[in-house]
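Notes continue from the previous slide.

Worked example: a multi-chain complex. Inputs as given:
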Amino acid sequence: MNIFKFKPITHKTFEFKQEKSPEVLPKTEYRKVSASQKENLKLIKEYFTLPQNSDIKIREFKTGGKDAFLVFIENMADTELIDKTVLAPLMLIDNTDISLSKIKNTLIVHNQLSLIDDFKDILKNINLGDCVLFVDGMESAISLDVKNWLTRGIEPPVAESVIYGPHEGFSENFKTNVAMIRKSIRNENLICETVFLGKVSQTPLSIMYMKNILNPALLKEIHYRLENIGADYITQTGELEQFIEDSTFSLVPQMLTTERPDKAATSLIEGKIVLILQGSPFALILPVTISEFLTTVEDKYIRFPFAILMKTIRLLGIISSVLLSGLYIAVVNFHQEMIPPGLLLSLEAAREAVPFSALVELLLMEIAFDIIREASIRVPSPIGSTLGIIGGLIVGQAAVSANLVSPIAIIIVAITGIGSFATPNYALNFSFRFSRYFYIIAGAVGGFFAVAVLMFINACHLCSIKSAGIPLFTSLSTNSSQNIWDFLFPKPIYKREIRHAFLNARLKKTQDNISRGWDK
Amino acid sequence: MNYKINTFEAVMIIVTLLCTKLFIAYPLFEPSFSGFQIILINLVSFVTAFILLILSSKFKFKVCHALKGIFVTILLIITVVFTGVNFSKYVFSLKWSLLNQTPESFISLILLAGIIFGVFSGIKGLGRLCGFFMPVILTTTIILIIPAFGQFDFINMFPLVGSGLKETFIFGLYMLSSLWEIVFICFIPSFLKDKVRLNKVLKHSLFISFLFYCFVGVSVVLSQTGNASEYSEIFKIIRTINPLNFMERPDSVFYILYVLALLLYFSTVVFFMKHIFTEYFEIEYSDELILPFALLTAQAGFTVLDYTYIKSLYDILFKGMWIITLLFPLLFYRRKIK
């Protein structure tokens, strides 16, 4: 082989040309339904880009001697229902004269239908899973609600499991989720508005609220924000949250995500707004305060002394998850005088063989722990537990044996790790995990001094950010009916008579002054 | 924008302005003071301050815009210098007690970062911060001092009027220098949600501050820690206790309170400096002034990089500050709630 004639094997590669922008398609002009069957059919094919768009189904047939056709989307509409309630009665009719009212009132055997004459509404309904019927010579189309979306069944919530309380979680179908909330609040004041987000995706979003409780200013603000989202594609609540939150660069979430219908229903009763997006098993609750991020629904379900105890333990876990590593570094590097001599000697003996500084040692362990945690989420669940055992036991034990880290560092990281699992909100857990690194560095740089400065900066940040216009720290510092004592030591459920003052709801009270009428 | 704060937040802001300085040093101490005398001194100064503020709210002194400008300038200069001196005293105190190896400039920079964040939170943020932290700071400080009671000499509570009634009264007025921040109270009404609450705010805040001043003052007298000048007296008292077997010396925990309290104080003072400046000159966007004011305050304290000079400068200023406390509320009191 002549090496001078060698040519490497080349593959055809795709080059994305940035120089020239693609042609912008003209804006769609929606027309009115025409009396001509051919005209309507042509328009539908144009709008849906047929025949390329393969899951758009058009069924042409004759009814009463007139041409007609049905349009629907495969897998979104119930075809069996269409056959029975629309096609069968219309196709089996004799060649008698038919009219729109006759079709609507006597032929179609279906409970939900409407007349539409605008193609904009027709397309929206088809996209939602409806079936639309056009008949030649009629200037309106009939839209039938035959939605049958594919969903998984109702399953227990994954991230918010409780012992006491319902084991139902939201699914990806927003209609099911709305129905699950309606199942909890059977009241005519519960409003469910539907808007469509994403210029291209047109994802349905349900805005749920209690008309007689919610402050209308809040609803107006949410409408304003939603109407002014210019994105093409929104499919998940996580994306939506980023589009409507106040502080984008904040480490702290400003909306509560939940997969529990009972939590969403409770929030609605409190006077909040719940947003349910099609395709996401999480609902967004807003506005919220920091105390709500640290409370679980179970706090309300169990008897209040236990709720106080559980909350205290949870808070200790959360505080340790954020601060313990930083305080450990601060004590080891700057405040050894705090530690009794016996403990100090054993600490030093444990660290004697470790070649790294306490900072490096702790950072190594924290990063390793986060990697294991991240990996165990990504792998299938049977392997996840194995990964935990490998990470926790084998790697930890081996690291101590190899003198890479001291046993005390393992204990500290384990406590912070377990503490972080006590955080009821997954998004807030991210925030705590992230801020822990800052506290470690602060503790190493300036001991308690730097930790205190960082705490102050953190508190400033928390005090200045808002959730839908409500400061996140409101409930912890004011002297209103709900303050820090109410958060730490909640009253028995029958004494919680007043709604959160910061919501400024239409109805100020949640229950009668003496809700236990039998105990007067 | 709604810049209103509620009663509790307003009370805590005033308490922050008046009480947190005690963490740096107790403002007035003579070896001849008795415990009861220090209570009487505080009583005289706080009652005078309260009467003064009530009087300011009743009478309207008309001052022309130009003259008011001069007073605003004087107030700002005095605030910058006095706060600067307090800042440098605080930095030196931190350096000597905790961060011996760290240069003052580094400590100042970290503190400045905290102060700037604090001021950026605005009055509502500061109100919430003070409302959240101050009860914790005051309570924890009292809890940390109580175990030191065993080492106090309670004989020092007597004689009842200490070195004399006349001297008690004079020192009481002289103690007004330590309450010069009540000038800022004059600007609080415009942040309050309603005017009816103003008297309540004044009463509550001055009463809480009076109690804390008395508690710390009596502790300083009884523990006889007030003679040395480098460290905070509270720090020295806390250093003597050994409440738990696990914690060898809990005074390190005090640093967290110490830093939080003083950051709240400096943030609030810088916020009011900025507020007064923007109000007088009718500046609409004032956030840009935060950094210069914060830097100016820190710089003012470090113009002389010697603690002895800073201490003597503080003493000189302290001797004249009671005039500000007496005079300026009459000029700046706000009756209108915007």
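Summary box: The two ends of chain B are 12 Å apart (CA to CA). Chain B touches chain A at residues 6-9, 94, 98-99, 102, 107, 110-111, 113-114, 117-118, 120-122, 124-129, 131-133, 245-250, 252-253, 255-256, 258-260, 263-264, 267 (CB under 8 Å).
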